[in-house]
C-alpha cells in the first residue's frame, strides 16, 4: 500500500493522537550474515547505511547485488525498547513492493493459460465485487496492473481513522474492497492513469478465483517456495523475525512505536497492495531474478519492461518516476534508469530497484519514517551512494 499524498499530509497529526500500545514481547535476536564479507564496494554501501541512521532511521535492512557479488547488512535497531539490533535475518513489511509479486503471479497464470491480461477483470471477479465497484466489470486485468482502471482508492483518510480507532483490524482484501462499494469511478476506464491500491486487491481476488488458492497461498507455493526464498512471506501470519515499527510524527527525533497499527493496517488476508514481509536479501534476490528473466518467460519479462509515461501528478519529490508498467515503476536517476517499486505502509517502508545498465539491484526496507527520512530515501540522489564515493 502506498499512502495517498493528501493522507500523508494529515497522517502526522493523526498519529500524535493515537495511543501507543505497549510492547508485549521482545523481537527475537536474529544472528546471521548474508552475502559476502569482502565485497569491493562494502565501504561505499556502509556510507549509505550511516547516512540512513543520520537521517533518523531506527532500523533498516539493506542489500545490494552487483556483478561482483552480494552485500547485505542490518542497520540500527529492530526493537528500541529491548535494544535488539536489526540483522540481515530480521524481516520488515515492504508496503507496495508487494505489487511486484502480484504482477508476477498474474503473468505466471497467463503463461499457464488461466487468464489473459486483456480479459475483462469482471470475468474472474465474484459478482458481488464486479457489480458494486464502478469500472470493475469493464477494466481489463492489464488496466488493473497499470493503474488505468479508474477504480476508486480504498485507502483513504476515513480508512486510516478506522485503523487508528481499531474499527478496522487486519481486514482482508475482500473486506477492504467492500468499503468502496457504490463509490464513483475516478475516470473512465483507460482514460488516464491514477495510482489506486484497490486495483491490486482486485487482482488478489482474480488469483483466488482462477487457482482455487488464496492469493497469498498461490504466491507462496508457486513463486516463493520453488525458488528458495525463505525470508519472503505472503501470509497473514506474522513471522517472529518481524521488526517493530516507528513513526516520528513531528520530525523531532521522537519515535512512536506503531507496530500494532501497522499490523492492523495490512495484516489481513491477501493484501497484495502492501501486506508482504521480507528481509532485503531475499527481496533483492527475487527482484534480480525477475528482472533478468529467471522467473518468467521471455514474453512475460518483456511485458514487464513495457512502460507507459506517468501522467498523474506524483509531486515534486517523486517526479523522477517516469513510467509505469505491470506493477513496476521506471525511475530516471543520476545513474540511469532504475526499475522496481517504492512501498509505504505508514512506518514500514520498502523499495527495490534494478539498474539494467550496471546490472545492480538494491533492496532497502526500513522500520521507521518521518518527513525528513522520507524525503531522503525517496530522492533520486540516494542511488548515488551505489555508484559514487560520497
Automatic annotation (TrEMBL):
Top-rank lineage group of the source organism: Bacteria
Organism: Salmonirosea aquatica
Matches recorded under InterPro entries: AmpC-like (IPR050491), Beta-lactam-related (IPR001466), Beta-lactam/transpept-like (IPR012338)
GO molecular function terms noted in the UniProt entry: hydrolase activity
Domain Beta-lactamase-related: 47-370
Keyword Hydrolase: yes
Keyword annotations from UniProtKB, A to Z: Hydrolase
Hydrolase in keyword set: yes
Protein name: Serine hydrolase
Amino acid at each position: 500500500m502506498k499512502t495517498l499524498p493528501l493522507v500523508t499530509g494529515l497522517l502526522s497529526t493523526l498519529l500524535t493522537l493515537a495511543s501507543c500500545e505497549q510492547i508485549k514481547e521482545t523481537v527475537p535476536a536474529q544472528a546471521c550474515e548474508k552475502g559476502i564479507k569482502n565485497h569491493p564496494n562494502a565501504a561505499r554501501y556502509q556510507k549509505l547505511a550511516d547516512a540512513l541512521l543520520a537521517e533518523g532511521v531506527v532500523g533498516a535492512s539493506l542489500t545490494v547485488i552487483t556483478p561482483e557479488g552480494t552485500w547485505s547488512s542490518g542497520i540500527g535497531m529492530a526493537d528500541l525498547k529491548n535494544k535488539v539490533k536489526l540483522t540481515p535475518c530480521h524481516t520488515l513489511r515492504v508496503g507496495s513492493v508487494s505489487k511486484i509479486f502480484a504482477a508476477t503471479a498474474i503473468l505466471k497464470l497467463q503463461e499457464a493459460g488461466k487468464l489473459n491480461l486483456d480479459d475483462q477483470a469482471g470475468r474472474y471477479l465474484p459478482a458481488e465485487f464486479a457489480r458494486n465497484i464502478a469500472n470493475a466489470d469493464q477494466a481489463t486485468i492489464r488496466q488493473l496492473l497499470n493503474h488505468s482502471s479508474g477504480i476508486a482508492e480504498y485507502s483513504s483518510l476515513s480508512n486510516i481513522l478506522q485503523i487508528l480507532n481499531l474499527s478496522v483490524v487486519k481486514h482482508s482484501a475482500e473486506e477492504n474492497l467492500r468499503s468502496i462499494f457504490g463509490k464513483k469511478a475516478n475516470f473512465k476506464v483507460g482514460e488516464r492513469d491514477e495510482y489506486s491500491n484497490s486495483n491490486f486487491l482486485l487482482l488478489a481476488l482474480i488469483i483466488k478465483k482462477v487457482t482455487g488458492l488464496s492469493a497469498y497461498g498461490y504466491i507462496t507455493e508457486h513463486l516463493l517456495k520453488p525458488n528458495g526464498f525463505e525470508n519472503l512471506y505472503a501470509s497473514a501470519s506474522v513471522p517472529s523475525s518481524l521488526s517493530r515499527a516507528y513513526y516520528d510524527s513531528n520530525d523531532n527525533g521522537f519515535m512512536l512505536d506503531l507496530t500494532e497499527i501497522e499490523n492492523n493496517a495490512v495484516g489481513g488476508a491477501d493484501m497484495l497492495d502492501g501486506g508482504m514481509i521480507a528481509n532485503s536479501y531475499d527481496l533483492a534476490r527475487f527482484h534480480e531474478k525477475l528482472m533478468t528473466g529467471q522467473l518468467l518467460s521471455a514474453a512475460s519479462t518483456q511485458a514487464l519492461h513495457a512502460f507507459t509515461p506517468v501522467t498523474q501528478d506524483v509531486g515534486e519529490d517523486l517526479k523522477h518516476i517516469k513510467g509505469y508498467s505491470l506493477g513496476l515503476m521506471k525511475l530516471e536517476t543520476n545513474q540511469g534508469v532504475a526499475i522496481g517499486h517504492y512501498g509505504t505502509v505508514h512506518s514500514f517502508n520498502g523499495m527495490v530497484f534494478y539498474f539494467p545498465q550496471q546490472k545492480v539491484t538494491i533492496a532497502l526496507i526500513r522500520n521507521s519514517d518521518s518527513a525528513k527520512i522520507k524525503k531522503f530515501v525517496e530522492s533520486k540522489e540516494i542511488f548515488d551512494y551505489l555508484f559514487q564515493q560520497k
